[in-house]
From TrEMBL, chains A, B, C, D:
InterPro entries: Thymidylate_synthase_ThyX (IPR003669), Thymidylate_synthase_ThyX_sf (IPR036098). NCBIfam families: thyX. This is Flavin-dependent thymidylate synthase. Catalyzes the reductive methylation of 2'-deoxyuridine-5'-monophosphate (dUMP) to 2'-deoxythymidine-5'-monophosphate (dTMP) while utilizing 5,10-methylenetetrahydrofolate (mTHF) as the methyl donor, and NADPH and FADH(2) as the reductant. Binds 4 FAD per tetramer. Each FAD binding site is formed by three monomers. The active site is at R223. The keyword Oxidoreductase does not apply. One of its GO terms (molecular function) is thymidylate synthase (FAD) activity.
Length: 301, 301, 301, 301
């Protein structure tokens, strides 16, 4: 990731100017504000603004007059109780606004999370930069042979080299053609809203994205998960690290009950109870499908 | 509206403790934070938190790196352009959180605005206070004879006195019975989640309510409108006054294009064009229904 | 529940008139259409319309051209897979529209489910009927002594009689006063939008409510749960019974993975693994709070 | 647009099998069901399912027991009233499900309408077809010189030929490389979730898209508008034609009040009033900005 001198100056200026506020302030998030956290080769996540902190969750749950409670330990217990019992509304009382630079194919997954506010850089209005995502060799994986929507072993040798060369030369060529079509030197110049259609989906775009903490947790649970595609997972992980600093109690509860948790079906509960009684349960006697049993054994091996 | 000494102390404490932040700060809103703005006889609106300011709208619309633009006049022009062309997403980048105390029948209208986050005081968990909305004599209006869902002339004399007396005595009696049923003196005491069902809908409830500026404008357009019921309109007006201080440029555009604006149908455009050419258009020659024509003449009388 | 002769005639007429359609038809739901399923003393749930069936979930998940698949067993496996892995979007492709008559205090809980479409009977525009929810003696419960938002033992003897008498006489009196205030005999008559505020929250209201199957499942999981208040749970149960007939495969998966399932925290997984190895784990050695441990033992006793 | 014989057979089979239903049936939409309406060079829109009709809007607005009203003329008056006064909830009681094949850059605009349900063909799971949008010569337009996000004159001669040739050869080459990278002949084969990133944004994707009539009208107002990009506008127009057959009364009201309507600011109302009195108003005396005045004169020339 490279920021222009001008962009860096704007970020530095924003960070140099603390002002007094009466709102809840989360010191753990203040230290991140505006700074661009690098993700992938040209991407980043920048926290632009936030609303609330751990105490604000408690305050809303209690519909209270004051700004917090007496004891942090009480706050933690209540926050864990709310998370455990799926009381989501108090978590919606915190909000975060991010500036994200990301490849278009990642943006297409991301946007499926509908409960968020988005302003994307417009390629109808402006010209996109010459920046494309080219995977690290370690990320250049083959199609998984067991998972229809996953990756297997890393490509090696000539095949890896061929793929990398293709990705690079195609991106360069497509951007050259984009510029050629747009050019107004001795020609009219194709409309931007049309020229953009020739660009590959590893080109970078940018957006402002704003959501509440409950929906952000939902995003993180799905996208920071091991089954998520690597290229969106690294964004989710970068965001998760900031959230841990912003609302440490809520994030701790989220980690325990959601990220580190597991949902058992009625069948799985039954099997576990039999196992606790010492019974040797097999796939056949479990009543589960092959896939279900594989996933079950993955946890309870 | 009366706050307990403890509640006022909590508000004072929150207002006494400015802290430095790197976020966008809106001085016009800082002065309102936490203070309870009285509405109706026992209600209030308190701004608890906010995110963003006029510059944040511009910043999101431009997906920019810095915190604002050079010239306020440019910001105003862009904000008016966005409002005029229904580009709503940049306005969604501002957020506000309110603590509201309001009668239940008002809350039932309010909650119909779905794009918002809400934590309401729980009458399953807690006991409601003995506070009921009793209208001012000037608000004790008869059913409108022209509008099926509106008010007509103010009630007078004995009828007004009778209504007021009924509202007051019924509220008092129902609350007495609420307490009687809940009481655990020499009896088990009815569950709170059941006892509450006997309370009338002018009892006050409270909630934390959080929404973005675009959806807040939508709320204000419908609820600060002359056709809205008085009892919700006064809340909308109290909020509007705070929003005018928070994001003056956006609020100015909203006032001009939404609150002070009007939508014309294709038929109405046609009629106005004929009138501009000097034609005398009648209801019959307008092609409008009776209701449409009355509304049209209401503006273009 | 009593329907007027006219209402029953309208329902009968709607049920008497099958017409051909090319859309997916769910025979299990057709048999319920329009019929009012009684709930509580005066309430009901009526299915008014639906979109899709089990095959439509599969069709959307596969973005297919045809109307279904060859084998029901394949559909079931895919639907269970989707449910197990929280792939919610295919379930959103089914939609249901209900007409519900319910007490206001139940409506106030229900409306908190925001992802739904609602048209409520307007008490600004019309006059409400004289119908109030009065609990069966078996539902007249004391406040729970262990759960702040729950019920304990059923009230008995004189206390139960006193409560019932109060609820009945208060409802009757409030409705008398409602009519008195509205009356235009020898007086102006208070506006309907004001008179309604004096009515208690056990009065019945009605609405059309429409939602997709994914959000309906979420509603059912929370409201058909043992912790939900009885008065909303009976509505959820009536709806669940219809859904089981409408989309039997999806409902089966929902029952197994959501209603009959349980979510384990990271801590709980760890404890279960130790128990599976034969360790005797206590609350102290579990690392769980008292509440967490009680809930854990409730499942794994 | 070309459908495979198998796809056409699936569509024909679905259309050949009418079944009885008790639900509201809209004959105007039945005739469209499943048939693929061609849009652009390879795209289409297919109506897969619908819920409700004009009478269902009225039924919900009245929270009625029966299926409709006595007189169509009453229905029309009420529907026009609801549209005129922005009573949106009754329109939400109709729902439509579409199968759409569209270029990715169009899908990226479309998805910004968040209040909808979507299942998109997964390029992680499956291999995309070799189908790219190549504009008709008449759509190959230059960048507008007056509108930063619009098109100007059509490209001509050598420039048009060059652009078309580039678009075609680039698409072909990128798809060749996509297949090369995926190939498992004598190599491992790149994961599908990675290979897709090299495809240009004029490749076609497909999705099931479901929304309610109110949100569909909002979509149509923005996307069937003259300012929308041509490539999404043609989809909106194809959908609008189906909606006109589905709910003719609601669509008529939508056309008059939304598509053919205009919103006037407070300033514009003032200017029109002065013009009606015979005053000659200039841009300077109007108080409007240059852009606002140009738009105003565009209507009231």
């Amino acid at each position: 990731m490279t920021l222009s001198a001008e962009q860096q100056a704007e970020i530095d200026a924003a960070r140099a100017n603390p002002q007094p506020t009466l709102r809840a302030v989360a010191p753990g998030m203040e230290k991140h504000l505006y700074t661009a956290q690098p993700v992938l080769d040209h991407g980043f996540v920048r926290a632009i603004d936030y609303m609330g902190d751990d105490a604000a969750i408690v305050q809303a749950a209690r519909v209270s007059y004051g700004a917090g409670t007496k004891h942090v330990s009480n706050d933690e217990g209540l926050i864990r109780y709310l998370m455990r019992h799926w009381h989501s509304t108090p978590f919606e009382m915190c909000e975060i606004k991010l500036h994200v630079k990301l490849p278009v194919f990642v943006a297409r997954q991301w946007i499926r999370h509908r409960t968020a506010n988005v302003n994307e850089y417009s390629a109808r209005y402006s010209i996109l930069d010459r920046e494309f995502y080219i995977p690290e060799p370690a990320q250049l994986a083959a199609q998984s042979t067991v998972n229809n929507q996953g990756r297997g072993a890393v490509l090696e040798g000539a095949e890896a080299a061929r793929v990398l060369a293709l990705l690079k030369s195609d991106a360069a060529q497509m951007y050259d053609h984009y510029e050629e079509m747009l050019s107004q030197d001795d020609q009219q110049g194709l409309a931007r809203e049309l020229a953009r259609m020739n660009l590959p989906m590893n080109i970078y775009t940018q957006w402002y994205w704003k959501t509440d903490l409950h929906n952000l947790f939902h995003f993180l649970r799905l996208r920071a998960d091991a089954h998520a595609q690597y290229e969106i997972r690294v964004y989710a992980e970068a965001i998760a690290a900031m959230v841990a600093d912003w609302v440490p109690l809520a994030f701790g509860a989220f980690e325990d009950y959601r990220m580190g948790g597991v949902t058992l079906s009625g069948k799985a509960i039954d099997v576990l109870k039999r196992m606790l009684k010492g019974e040797e349960v097999t796939r056949e006697s479990s009543g589960m499908s092959i896939g279900e049993w594989r996933e079950f054994k993955g946890v309870w091996k």
